[in-house]
Each structure stands twice: as C-alpha cells, then as structure tokens.
Amino acid sequence: ILSSGGIYLGTNNNVNLLNYYEEGTWTAQIWDAITGGTQSTIVNNVSRYTRVGRLVTLQASLSNITIAGTTTNTMYIRNLPFSIGSNQMSAGAANFYQVDFGGQNGILWANAAANTGILRVLKQNSAGAGSTLKLNNIDNTSGYAEISFTIQYTT
Predict the structure, then answer these.
(1) How far is the C-alpha of 59 from the C-alpha of 100, rounded, in Å?
(2) Nearest by Cα to 2 from 13, 52, 54
(3) Closest of 91, 129, 95 to residue 108, by C-alpha
(4) Main-chain phi, psi angles of 138, to 5 degrees
(5) Fewer Cβ atoms within 10 Å of its own Cβ: the N or the C terminal residue of the chain?
(6) pLDDT over threshold 80, residue 75
(7) End-to-end Cα distance, the chain
(8) What number of CA atoms fall less than 13 Å from residue 108's CA on the CB side?
C-alpha cells in the first residue's frame, strides 16, 4: 500500500498499480440530442456506478419515462459520472419494457466519441445491421416504460 494512495497487485511497477476506486450514484438523463436539445422526464431514476482504475460499471433503472423534444430523434442517455475514453466502445445487458424495437433486438452500447459521457441504444436486425432507438419507440401512453441496464466502459 502506498502512502500517496493505491496498492500494487503483484510486482511493484506502475502497470500493477491500482490507484482509483469509487462508488456512488448518478442521475441518468434522456435527451433527444448529443448536446443541447430537450430533456425527457424520468420519474423513477435509480442509477449507481463503481469505478475501479479506468473501468466504470454503470447500473440504472429508469421508469415512468415521459418523452420530450423531437421524438423522431435518437434517444441519448447523458450525464454519465465519467467520460468514456477516446476510441472506446462498450456493450452491456439491458431490459426494456414498453419500448418498441419493431421486431429487432435491442443492444445498449456506448457512443465512443472521444471523451464523451453519452450512451445510446442500438436496434439490431437478424442480419446484423443496426439503427438507433428513437424517442418515439418509447411507449409514452402507459406511463410504465422502463429501461434497466448494466454497462461497462473505460475512461
């Protein structure tokens, strides 16, 4: 254990130095644009994170979602607790309720634009081609739309 913070795992060199650990909560936000735009309302927002070194694990349960803005735009999840590192991509597991994928599978993935804190949902057909989930794919009428996910990425 180092007095300056951190612990060596294995040999005493910087490659094996674990010098960052943090747990906390964050407030996921749903928007209709990468920057600017209009924010949708999430009534029940339970979002947590754990960061070990450069690896970030996010967990979120977002329900009772009321969409706002340009509903034909891609849905973006913003306000991540840490920016995604440059040229990084990631995938995670997700559960969707009252979200219409038009017969396609839903895959949550991190927008890998350098140093951003943005997630988006990709719809993928059986041939592997994909498109992004739009805000109007969320069933706004039931009041019970829910998106729950766990995802990992590096800073």
Answers:
(1) 22
(2) 13
(3) 91
(4) -90, 130
(5) N
(6) yes
(7) 23
(8) 19
How many alpha carbons lie under 13 Å from residue 76 in its C-beta half-sphere? 21
Helices and strands (H, E) in the chain, number of each type: 0, 12
Place of tokens 């924010």: 39
Tokens 């340009």 belong to 70
Q: Cβ atoms within 10 A of the Cβ of 51, count?
A: 18
DSSP strands (E only) in the chain = 7-8, 17-18, 21-25, 29-31, 41-52, 55-66, 76-78, 91-97, 105-110, 119-124, 130-132, 146-154
Q: How far apart are CA 117 and CA 55, in angstroms?
A: 14
